[in-house]
Amino acid sequence: MSQPVEYNKKREVSIHPTKTLPPLERRPDGSLYRMTPARRKRASALIRRECCCCEDGNCIALDDGDACTCPQTVSFSVCCKWFRWAVLPLDGALEAEIFRDKDLKRCAVCGGVFVPKSNRAKYCPGCAAKVHRRQKTESERKRRSCVDS
Fold first, then answer.
1. Which one of 85, 86, 131, 138 counts the least CB within 10 Å of its CB?
2. Segment 72-77 mean pLDDT
3. 3-state SS, one letter per residue, for the chain
4. pTM higher than 0.85, yes or no?
């Protein structure tokens, strides 16, 4: 005769990932950070492309049986924790434009906005390698031209 199987094991309760995220940052006056129309457009494109909770413009995390439009795609304020902590860091320049306006610099070559890694940064990471290569080539050319044969 076989022993009865016990099914009284504790069931793990899954916690929704957004519950473990830190709260949204707010301005000193208590309001949420706001985006310009251009930034909102870039954020919406980023959400459609990268957010795992967004499917056909609807938010899966808010889905309770009815289709619910993703509130972050239609809002000018940063109102979604998942967007803030999981999706927005994928575009560092956009994140910096929204949250750190004064820490941004413009690239001297392409004019793009970037977050400087030091106070001496002059070029965005994409242009920095090209400029460094060009400067090194010019320096070597100058050094070789001064050598007597």
1. 138
2. 89
3. CCCCCCCCCCCCCCCCHHHHCCCCCECCCCCECECCHHHHHHHHHHHHHHCCCEECCEECCCCCCCCCECHHHHCCECCCHHHHHHHHHHCHHHHHHHHCHHHCEECCCCCCEECCCCCCCCCCHHHHHHHHHHHHHHHHHHHHHCCCC
4. no
- With contact defined as beta carbons under 8 Å apart, do 81 and 32 qualify? no
CB under 8 Å to 142, separation ≥6 — which residues? none
Neighbours of 127 (CB within 10 A): 17
Tokens of 93: 């320049």
Return the biggest CA–CA distance within the chain: 100
The tokens for 71 are 């509130």
Q: In the prediction, which pLDDT does 56 show?
A: 86
Read off the pLDDT of residues 37-65 as tens digits, 9 standing for 90 and up.
999 999 999 999 998 888 888 888 887 77
Angle of the 92-99 helix axis to the 37-50 helix axis, nearest 10: 140
Structure tokens at 117: 């890694």
Give the pair of three-digit tokens for residue 42.
Answer: 């870039």
pLDDT at 109 over 90: yes
Residue with tokens 């499917």: 55
